[in-house]
Please model this.
Amino acid sequence: MERTNPLSRRRMLQTVAAGSAVGIAGCAGQSDETAAPTDEISFPELGEFRGSGPLVEGRPAPGGTSIEDLPNLEGELNLYIGGGEGGIYFRFVEKLEEIYPNFEVFPTSASSSSLAQTVVEEVDAGAPQADLFWSIDASSLAFVANNDAYEPLSADAIDPVPSDFTGPDSAWVGVAGRARSIPYNTNALSEDEVPNKVQQIPDTEGLPGSMGWAPSYGAFKSFITAMRLQQGEETTSEWLSSMSSAGTQKYPNEFVVSSEVADGTLDAGFANHYYALRVKNSRPDAPLDLAFTSGDAGALVNVAGALQIEGTEKSDLVNTFVRHLLSAEAQEFFTTVSFAYPMIPDVAPPGDLPTIDELNPPEIELSELSELEATLDLMRSAGVLG
Model:
C-alpha cells in the first residue's frame, strides 16, 4: 500500500442502525476527561470488531478501555506498516477511518525489516516521511530504537500493556502477541509425547523426521535468535544440524506447516500459535492441537507493536492512535480475527489457549531479537538456510 492522494481515499462515515446498542458491554475503562464529545460519532457494536467461527463463539465481552472513552481521532497520519498478517492489521485502521470522519491514514507497506531500515535512514537524513511505525515483530522495533530514531510514547499509550511487552524508554509498545508452539496431529501423538524443551526433540525417537519447519520465515529466525541468546551459538548450531539431518521438512511458511500437521502429512511442526488456530477455526474437526514448551526459545512470545518516529509533528495524534490500538475493541479484533494474543489482561486469549501469564517464555528482552546477523550466519553454516 503506497501513500495516495488524500482526496482519493476519503470515506463517508458509516453509522449503525438506529436503536442499536452503543459500544462494548463489559468494558471497564474510565472515561477520559479530555475525550471529545461523541454526539456526532456513531460507534459500531461489538460484532463489527469481532471475528467469526467456532473458536470465537461464546467469548466473554472484552474488558479494558473502549474507544468511546478515548479522544477522537482527527487529522492525517502517515503510517509505515509492516507487511504480513494478510492485511488484517490495516483492516482495523480502515474501521477507525470509517468511525472518525476527520481522520485519515496514508500507509506505506513493506516488510517490517526494510521499513525499519528506511525509518533509520530517513531520520538520520533529517527527513522522516512517516509519523508511526507499526511492525509485525519486536526485532524491527528494536532496530529503530537502538538507532535512536524514535520518540518515547506517552504513559497513557503504554500503561495498559505489561512491561515485558514494551521497549526500553517507552520506545515502543506491543499491540498483538504471538507465542511459539508445536502444532501436533492428535492421531499421531498425545501432548505428553511432545517434549517440554525443544532441545530434547532431536533425542525423541521418531519425532524429528516427522516434523516440519519454515526456516526462511521471520518468526522462525526470531525463535533461533532467542535460542542463540539463551543457549549459545554452539548448542544452537548442533540443534539445527541434528534437526536437519533427521529430515525435518522445509515449508515456505508456518501456516502450511500447521495445515500439513492437520492433514497428517506431518506428526508435528514449529509455528506461531495462531496458524493452528486459523486451521481449526475453518476445520474444527481437524486432528490438530498445540503444545507449548517451557522456559526456552520454543516458548518465545513475540509481539507486533507500534513506535513513534522521531521528528513527527503529530505526537498527540500518534499517541491517541496507539491508545486506540490498545482499546477493548482493537484487542478483541486482533484476538478474534488474526487469533493473536491480546496485549491487555482484560481480553481473553483466542480459543482455549492458556493466558500469557500461564505460559513460561524465556527470560529474554525482546529488544535483543534485533541481533539477527549472527543468527543468519549460524543458520547458513548449519545448512538450514541457502
Q: What stands out?
A: The longest strand covers residues 172-185. The first helix runs from residue 88 to 99.
